[in-house]
Amino acid sequence: MDKKYEPLYLGSAYYPEDWDVSEMPKDIAKMKEMGMNVARMAEFAWAKMEPEEGKFDFKWLHDAVDMLAANGIKSILGTPSATPPRWLSVMYPDVFYIEADGNPRSHGGRRDCCSNNPHYRYYSARIAEEMAKEFGNDENVIGWQIDNEIYSWTGCFCPECLRKFQLRLKEKYKTIENLNKEWELNCWSQKYDSFNDIPSPRGTWHNPNLCFEWYCFHNESHIDFLKMQADILRKYTKAPIGSDCMPLNGLDYEKIAEFSDVIQYNHYNTKENLWVTNFWFDYLRNLKDRPFWNTETATCWNGGTALHQSIKPEGFCRVNSFMPVALGGEANLYWLWRTHQAGHELVHGGVLYSNGRPYHVINEVMDTTEILKKSTEFIRETKVDTKVALHFTSKNWNMFLSQALTDGFKYIDHLTEDAYKPLVKAGVRPDVIGAKADLSKYDVVFSPFMMTLEDGNLPENIKSFVENGGTWVAGPMTDIRTWCGTNYTKSAYGILEEITDAYRLYQIPDFDNIIKAKWADGEEFTGTSLYDVYEETEGTLASITAGHSALINKPIMVKKSYGKGTVYLLGTIPGEKDMIKLIKMVLKEKNIKPMEFEGGVTAVKRIGENKNGIILIENAAENASFTLEKKMKDILSGEIYEGKISLTPYQILVLEEI
Amino acid sequence: MDKKYEPLYLGSAYYPEDWDVSEMPKDIAKMKEMGMNVARMAEFAWAKMEPEEGKFDFKWLHDAVDMLAANGIKSILGTPSATPPRWLSVMYPDVFYIEADGNPRSHGGRRDCCSNNPHYRYYSARIAEEMAKEFGNDENVIGWQIDNEIYSWTGCFCPECLRKFQLRLKEKYKTIENLNKEWELNCWSQKYDSFNDIPSPRGTWHNPNLCFEWYCFHNESHIDFLKMQADILRKYTKAPIGSDCMPLNGLDYEKIAEFSDVIQYNHYNTKENLWVTNFWFDYLRNLKDRPFWNTETATCWNGGTALHQSIKPEGFCRVNSFMPVALGGEANLYWLWRTHQAGHELVHGGVLYSNGRPYHVINEVMDTTEILKKSTEFIRETKVDTKVALHFTSKNWNMFLSQALTDGFKYIDHLTEDAYKPLVKAGVRPDVIGAKADLSKYDVVFSPFMMTLEDGNLPENIKSFVENGGTWVAGPMTDIRTWCGTNYTKSAYGILEEITDAYRLYQIPDFDNIIKAKWADGEEFTGTSLYDVYEETEGTLASITAGHSALINKPIMVKKSYGKGTVYLLGTIPGEKDMIKLIKMVLKEKNIKPMEFEGGVTAVKRIGENKNGIILIENAAENASFTLEKKMKDILSGEIYEGKISLTPYQILVLEEI
Amino acid sequence: MDKKYEPLYLGSAYYPEDWDVSEMPKDIAKMKEMGMNVARMAEFAWAKMEPEEGKFDFKWLHDAVDMLAANGIKSILGTPSATPPRWLSVMYPDVFYIEADGNPRSHGGRRDCCSNNPHYRYYSARIAEEMAKEFGNDENVIGWQIDNEIYSWTGCFCPECLRKFQLRLKEKYKTIENLNKEWELNCWSQKYDSFNDIPSPRGTWHNPNLCFEWYCFHNESHIDFLKMQADILRKYTKAPIGSDCMPLNGLDYEKIAEFSDVIQYNHYNTKENLWVTNFWFDYLRNLKDRPFWNTETATCWNGGTALHQSIKPEGFCRVNSFMPVALGGEANLYWLWRTHQAGHELVHGGVLYSNGRPYHVINEVMDTTEILKKSTEFIRETKVDTKVALHFTSKNWNMFLSQALTDGFKYIDHLTEDAYKPLVKAGVRPDVIGAKADLSKYDVVFSPFMMTLEDGNLPENIKSFVENGGTWVAGPMTDIRTWCGTNYTKSAYGILEEITDAYRLYQIPDFDNIIKAKWADGEEFTGTSLYDVYEETEGTLASITAGHSALINKPIMVKKSYGKGTVYLLGTIPGEKDMIKLIKMVLKEKNIKPMEFEGGVTAVKRIGENKNGIILIENAAENASFTLEKKMKDILSGEIYEGKISLTPYQILVLEEI
User: Fold this and answer.
1) What are C85-102's pLDDT values in tens digits?
2) What is the pLDDT of residue C2?
3) Which of A147, A255, B304, C593 is 20 to 30 A removed from B410 (C-alpha atoms)?
C-alpha cells in the first residue's frame, strides 16, 4: 500500500472504574495483544467522575485514555447521563421516571430518570460539559457517545412530561378546535376545551391519535435531551459525536442523524436473526455520509442476571464482527471487555471473564482483527452500491404501536420478513431509507406497510420520483391513514387513487386466512393479512379466486402508469414466492440485474473510483453458493475465484475485481 | 295482506355528530336505498348536546330525526351517559372510576365514570331529562336506549362505592352480628364489629361471600343508575325504554326488565359461536311480553384499533341479521352505519366505509330487508312455542365468579355447551328462563349449575312445580350453596335431599378425569367435572364403574318422585351422548315430541291464532336436513316443502303450515 | 410389648370456633371412633380469643382441649398471629403489608400484616402470652405452633421494613464504603453515600445483591417474629414449640430449628410429586434431634374457592399419611377435620364434609391409625441410617431467586430432579442437609447447585471433611459466587481451584443444548445447563466431544485427591443415566452398598440398639420390586419376606430383621 488509510476499528466497552487500578495495565496489555485498537469508556461512570455534587475527578479517566493510547488504542467516551449518582436523586427525588401506575422508578438500574426533568437535565448537561472540557481536545479521544440506549416504551407519566406534552400539542395543532377537528373528537364526546385538559394516555382505553402523539412526544423528548448534550460537546471538540441506539426506530434515527456526526448502533442478534442485522446496516449507512459504528454486540451470548438467549455457534463471532463493516460501517465494538465482578449482567459473554481469562471465542476475535487489517484499503476505497430502496420510517413505527390493525401486528417484523427478505432472496441489496431520503438516486422504491405517507414532503417526493420515471411499489397497508392517524373520508387513500385510476372497493382486515388469487398469467397467487380489493381495471396483476362472491375476480394487485414512471399497487402481502416473482418483474423492467446465489448469503457490491468488488458472507451457518460475473481475488486468502463458487458455513470472502 | 302490521326493523347505529352536516343527506339517502327503516343515535353525543355546562343544543339531532323520518326511517335515541364531556371531569375530577390499584380512569374512553358518583349521576340525569323534553313526544322517535353496554367487572373502588356497599350490606343483613353469622366469620378471625369496617375486596385473598356481594352490588348500582334515567324518560315519553346490554348476565336482565319496556341486546358473535346467540335469544324473549331488539351486531367483523376476530363468511350477515327476529325479536341494528373517520374503532366493519363506499356484504344487508318484509305477517301473528325450560340466573353468574369451584370454570360456557347444546341437538327449542320465571307453563325444567337455588321464591316455586306434576332435571352442581354462597351443614343440599330420598355420600371435585359409569340398562355412561355420589337407592339411572373402591356401584344419577311430579338428580355432567339420551327419555315420559334434524339447524316453531309454522336457519355454514311433520310453504321463495328436506349452508326458510 | 412407647400421632386441624358448640361432642366422638389421637387448634382464632382489644376469652378453647382429652386426644395449639382481628387494623391501619406497587393489603385474608410493624408485633406477642398463661401447663397440650405458613415472597414495602432493611445492611456491612466495595457499586454509578439512601428493590431493574439481601432480610424478619413468640411461650410451657412451615426454604429451616423444639411442616403434594416429599422429609429429620411433625397435608385434594389440583387416587391417602413417620417424623395431621361452612376454602378435602358426613377416603384414614399403632415400637426403637448427604441451603435458595443464571431456573426443581432423584434411583437414602450440618458422620457429600459455598464455616468444614478422607461431589454451578453473590475475580471459584489442581478454562451458560461428551472409558456422556470446561488434566472423568472447536476434548468432569479424601468436580448436570453411573462409582469406592429395587420405592433403612429393619413404600402407584439382603418380617401383616420381593401399588411394608 502506498497510501495511508484510516484504520477499521475493533474494540470493546471498557469499564476501568469497576476494577482496581492494578488491573488496568494487565487489561490493556491484553487488548493490545489481541490487536484491538479502540475502547469505549465512561458511559456509566458519573459517580466516579462526580463523586459529590460539583466535585469532579477525571484523573482516572485520563490515565485510562493515556495508557490505552500508549498501547495504540483509541478511546471513545460516553456521557454518563444513563446512570446518575445517588446524590442527585437524594437531592431531587423528582428526577425519577413515573410509571403508568403512578409509581416512580428507583435508583440502582439504568435510564430511570425522566428526560424532561429540569434537575436531571441540568446535571446531565453539566457533567457532559465538564467531560468535554477535559477531553474535547484529547487527540486520542476519537469520538463521543451521548447517553446509552435511550428509548421510550410507554413513556414517563410525571407532571413535567404531561405539561410538555400539552405544550407540544399546542405548538403542533395551534388551536384546540383544530386538534378536536383533526382527531374528530365529537366521537364519544372526547373533545377538549383546552390543551390543559388533555390527559396522558393511561387509566382507560385511550384514543389512538393521542397515544401516537404521546409515543412521538416521548421519543422527541429523548432526542431533545441528546441534542442538548451534543450542542455542549460540540463547543469543545471536533471529534465525531453520536448516541448508541438500538434496533428500535420509534426514536427517529433520521432526527438522531441531524445532530450526530456518526451513527452509533447496538445490537444483540443471534444465529436465528443474524440476517436482520443486514436490514439495519442497510438502513444505517444511508443516514450520514460517513461510515457508522457498531458500538455494541456480544461475542458469544447475551444475558443479565440470567441468560435470555442461545449460545452462538462457532464462526458466528467472526462473521458478526465483520458484518457491519462490510455493509457500510467502520467499527465494531464488543460489549464488554471483561465480565463485571458484580451487578446485573454477570451472565453476559465478553472478551475476558471477570477472572481475566479469555472466553472460548478469543480466536474468532483475533481473526477479526486480521480480517479488518487486510480489508482496510478495499473498504476505505469503496462504497455500497444499489439502485433499489425500501422505506422504513419512524412515524409508521409509532403509528403501528398506537393502532396495530390486528392483534400483535409488528411493523418491523413484517417489513423484514415480508419485504426485505424477499428482496434479498431475489438478489437485491437494497438501501433501507427513511422518510426524508432523496429518492432521485434510485430506480425502484418499495414502500410496504407505510400506514401513513404524510410525513414531511414525502407525498410530493414520491410523486415527483414517479413522474420522472421511477418505479414505486406501494403497499400493502400503505397510504391508508392521514398524518395524525385518522381515516381518509373522500378517497380510500391519500394519494394512491389520485395518481392511479385504481378504485378501491373494499378493505378487508383478514389476518387469519390465506387469500387465494391468480396472476394475470394464470399462475396461482397467495396473499396474507389485511387486503385491499379494487374495481376491475386495466393493469391488473393478480385477482381474487376464492372467498365471498363479492370479491371474486376483483383485482388485488395492479400496475399503473404515472408520468414517466410506474406504480405497482399491492393490495395484500404476497407469499414469498409471489413477492420474489414481482420483484424480479420490476427489476427486469428497470434493467437491474439481480445477484445470483443460493442460501443465506450477505452479498455486498462495493464500488469505488479505483476499486470494485463484492463481499460475500455466509450468514446462516449452512452451505451456500454465489455466481460471480467476473474473475475476482479474495483479499483475505489471496485466492482467485470465478463463476459459481461454493461458500462454507460462516465463510467470509472479500473479493476484488482483477 | 288485509291487515296492517307493525314493521320489523332493520337499521344501524348512526352518528351524525361525527360528520360534516353535508354528509347527512347522502347518508340518509343510502339508508333509504337499502331499505333500512330505523337508526339509533345520540348514545355518545353528550358533548354535542351540551357543549358547555348547562348549555344545550339539540337542533342537529332534530334535523337528523326529521330528515330520517322524511325518508321513512324511525329513530331510537340513546342517553349519552356512557361518554360525559371533558368539562364534567374538569369540574369534578372525582367522577372517575377507581381501579383496584387505586388509580383513576381518565377521559377519552367509554364508561370511565362511577355510576355511584353524585356529580356524574346529577349531570347524567339532567342531560337525559333535557333530551326527553325535546324528543319525548316526537312520534318518529320509536324508542329510547339508556346509556350503552353498562357492565361491572371488578367494580369501582372509589370511597362512594365503598360507603354505598357498606350501606347495602347493612340494609340486607340488618345487623353486623347477622352478617358475621351468615358468612361464618369466626373463620380466620374475619368478623367485623361494624358495617363501616368492611373493606372493598382488593389487596388480599378476599372472602368469596364478600366478593359475591361486591359483584352484585356493582351490578345493582348500574341498574339503579339506569332506572334513575328510565324514571326521568318515562315522565316525558310513551315510547318504549330499555338499555342495550351485552351477553353478560352478572347485570341481572330480570332486574333490567323490571324498569324496561323493551329488552335491548348487543352481540358480536362469530361463525364459531353463532349458535350461542340462540341461547341468548331464547332467554331474552321471555323477559318481557314484547319482542326484543337486537340493538348491535357487526355486518362482517369486529375490531377496535386492531382486529380481534375472524372475518365472517358469506351468508353469515344475512343469517345473523334474521336470527333475532326468528327467535322472538323484532329489530336488528348493525354497529355501525359508517366506519368512523377517527378514534378507537377504525378496524370495525359497518355498512359503509368512512369514505362512504359500501362494505362487500351490502347485498346481504339488502337481502335482509326483503326477508324481513316478507316475514312480517308471519312473525307478527305467531310466537315461539315450547314446553321445556332451562334455568339461567344472574345470581349464579355472580356466585360462580366469586367461587369458581375449579380453576377457570365458567357458568355460561358450561351451561351452553353441556346443557343447551344437547337440548337443541335432542330436538328441543327451550325457553331459557331466569329465577323469577313462572314455571307452571312448562312440562320440563332443567336446572344445571345452579350453585344456589335460594333466589327469591325459587325453591318454593320449584317444589310446587314438581308437586303439580312437572319434571325437574336438577344438577349437576345445583343447590349446593346457600343464598349467600356458604355450604349447607345439615344436609348436602338445600332442598334436594328434602324432596327426594336420595342421600349424597360424597361430592368429589374431579374436573380432570372422565367419570366412568353405566346406565341401569348396562350401557356405558361417562361424566365430567365435580360429581356427587349417592347411597344405593331405587331409581338409580347410572352408577359408577371405576375409580376409588368406595365409589364403585354408587349411583351418580337418580330419578325420584315428588308429589305428582318427577325429579331427575344429576350428580355429574353427562357426556353429550348420555345427556341427549337422558333428555329424550324425559321428553318421552312427558309426551313431548322432539324435532328431527341433522346438522346446525336453528329450528323455531311459532304458533299463533291464525297461523302456525316453523323457521329453519342453517347456522353452521354446512349442509343440514330437517324432517317436517306437515306440508309447508316457504314465505320467502313461495316453494312447498314436506318430509325430510335439505338445507344448504346459511339457508333460511320461513315455513307456514298450509 | 413390655415397654411403654410414646404413641405416633394421627389427627387433624380442628376449628371448634367455626361451629356451633353443639357440634363439638359429635365431632370429637367421631375423631375418637377413627382412632385419632391429636388435634391442632386455635391458629386462626384470635378474634374468638380476644373479641375486643384486651378482653380475652379462652373458655371455649379449654372446653375443646378438655373434651378432646377426655376422649384420648391430645391438643396442639397455634398462636393466631396469621389472622389478627379487624379491631387491630381499625385501630392501626398501618399494620398492613404494603405491596411493591404501594398498595396495602386488606382485612379478610391471611398473613396480610407486616411482621416488622410494631403495633402488629405488640398485639401478636400479647395474645401469644395470654394463651401461654392459660395453656402452658395444660398436660393435654402436647405442643405449640407459632403463626401459620409464614413466608416471604417479594416482601413488604412499608417504611418500617425499609428502615429495618437499611439498619440490617449497616449491621452486616458496617460501613457504606464496605457495602459499595463488596457489591462493586462503581458499576453503573450505583454507589451509596449512606445506608439511609438504599431503596427497597422496586420500581426498576435492581441490583441482584440488593435483591438477595432483601429476600434474606424479609425471611429473617419473619424468623425474628416467630422467635419473639417462641421466647414468650417458653416462659410458660415445657411442651415443644415450633412453627408450621412450607416447602419453601427461603425461610431458613436451620434458623427455624434454632429456636424450635420440634420441626413442623405442611405439604400438599400430589400423585405426581409425592416422591418430592421424601426429599423434604430426608431434610427435616436432620434439623433437630427429635422426630418432626407433618402438621398439614390433604386427605384427598387441595383447593380454595376453586380446585387447583387433581384428585388423589386410592391408596394415596394411606401412603401419604405414613410417609413422614417412615422417614423420621412422629405425627401426621390432616388439613382439615371438617370442611368449613363458609369462606375461602370450601373446595378442600378433609376428613368430614361440612355436613358431618365422611369423605370417601375415610377407610384409608382409619387404616393409617392401625398402621401407626402396629409400627410404634419399631419406629420408636430405630432411626434412619445413611452415610450419604446432599446439601440444600436456604442461602442458595434466595441467591438463585436474585440471579437465576437462566430464565426460570429453579434451585429446588433441579436439586430434586437432577441430584436427589438419581441418588434414590441408585439405591441411596440420603440425608438432605443444610449449611450448618456436621459433615463428619458422612462418607460422601453431594453439593450441586450451591451457587455460593460461603455460608458460615462451610468452606472450612468441607475442606476438613475431605482432608479427613471424605468424598465430596461438587457442582455443577457450585462455588461460583461469593457470600454476597458477586463473581470471583482471582480464580474461577472460591475454593475449588484451591483444593484441586483443576483449572477452569470456560464457563458456558448453555441451557438449551445437550452437551455431548464421553467418559474416560469411552462411553457416551451427556450433560445439560451451564457448564464449566477445564484444562486437560489427570483425573478426567468425562470430556467434550462436540461443539465449538475450542472445547473439544476438554474435561467437563474431573476427580481429584485432596488430603485423604477425594473431590469429584462436575462441570455440568449429567444426564440421569450418567449421574447414576457416577453415584455408583462413588459408592463403590466408599464401600457403600446401594439398595436394590425397581420402580418408585421409598426404602428406609432404620437402625436401633435392639432392632433393625427397613420400611418399603411404593410411592408411584405402580408395581415395583425390592431385593432384601436378609430375611424379614412385616410388622403390619406378620408375613415373612426374603430375597427379591414384589410390591403392589401404594403397598406399605414395615420389615424387621428376624
Assistant:
1) 999 999 999 999 999 999
2) 56
3) B304
Grid coordinates given for C184: 462493586
Q: What is the DSSP letter of C108?
A: T
CB A64 within 8 A of CB A31: no
**In this structure, are residues A19 and A352 in contact, taking their beta carbons and an 8 Å threshold?**
no
pLDDT reading at B389 higher than 50: yes
Are A148 and A242 in contact, with CB atoms under 8 Å apart? no
Distance in angstroms (rounded) separating the CA atoms of residues B407 and C301: 14
**What's C494's DSSP letter?**
S
Contacts of C636 (CB under 8 A, 6+ apart): C371, C374, C375, C652, C653, C654
**Mutation target among C310, C355, C362 for the B interface, most CBs of B within 10 A:** C355
The closest of A267, A262, A265, A253 to A230, measured between CA atoms, is: A262
Among C103, C107, C313, select the one facing B199 at the smallest CB separation: C107
Alpha helices in C136-205 (DSSP H): 159-173, 176-182
Confidence at residue C309, expressed as pLDDT on a 0 to 100 scale: 80
Looking at the complex, report in whole angstroms how far the Cα of residue A346 sits from the nearest Cα belonging to chain C: 8
Q: Which parts of chain A have pLDDT scores under 50?
A: 1
C47 contacts B190? CB cut-off 8 A: yes
Contact present, B473 and B573 (Cβ < 8 Å): no
* A195: Cα separation from own chain's centroid: 34
pLDDT digits (tens, 9 = 90+) for C379-436: 999 999 999 999 999 999 999 999 999 988 999 999 999 999 999 999 999 999 999 9
A285-337 tens-digit pLDDT? 999 999 999 999 999 999 999 998 789 999 999 999 999 999 999 999 999 99
A286 interface with B at CB cutoff 8 Å: no
CA distance C655 to chain B (A): 27
Nearest to C542 by CA among C572, C508, C510: C572
Determine the distance from the C-alpha atom of residue B431 to the mean position of all C-alpha atoms in its chain, rounded to a whole number. Answer: 12
- The residue written with cell numbers 471433611 in the block is C465
For residue range C452-484, list pLDDT tens digits in order. 999 999 999 999 999 999 999 999 999 999 999
Contact B274, B319 (CB under 8 A): yes
pLDDT at A1: 45
Please answer whether residues A615 and A644 qualify as being in contact, where contact means their C-beta atoms are separated by less than 8 angstroms. Answer: no
Element of type H or E holding C77 = strand C74-78
Listed residue (A118, A419, A122, A174) closest to A276, CA to CA = A419
3-state secondary structure of A557: strand
**Considering CB atoms only, which of B106, B308, B341 is closest to A489?**
B341
Any residues with CB less than 8 A from the CB of A623 and at least 6 apart, and which? A599, A646, A647, A648, A649
Question: Any CB–CB contact under 8 A between A101 and chain C?
Answer: yes
A-contacting chains (≥3 CB pairs under 8 Å):
B, C
Which domains, ranges and CATH numbers included, belong to chain A? 37-261 (3.20.20.80), 388-589 (3.40.50.880), 596-657 (2.60.40.1180)
How many CB atoms are closer than 10 A to CB B23? 14
Cα gap B570→C264, rounded to integer Å: 42
Judged against a pLDDT cut of 50, whether residue C584 lies above it is answered with yes
Measure in Å the smallest separation between the Cα of A87 and chain C Cα atoms: 7
Cβ-count burial C74-97 (b if 16+ within 10 Å, e if not): bbbbbbbbbbbbbbbbbebebbbb
pLDDT digits (tens, 9 = 90+) for A356-386: 999 999 999 999 999 999 999 999 999 999 9
Tell me what pLDDT residue A219 has.
Answer: 97
Mean pLDDT for the stretch of residues B282-302 = 97
C-beta atoms surrounding A593 within 10 Å: 9
Q: What is the mean pLDDT of chain B?
A: 97
| CA distance linking residue A486 with residue A476, whole number of Å | 17
Nearest Cα to Cα of residue A50 among A137, A111, A122? A122
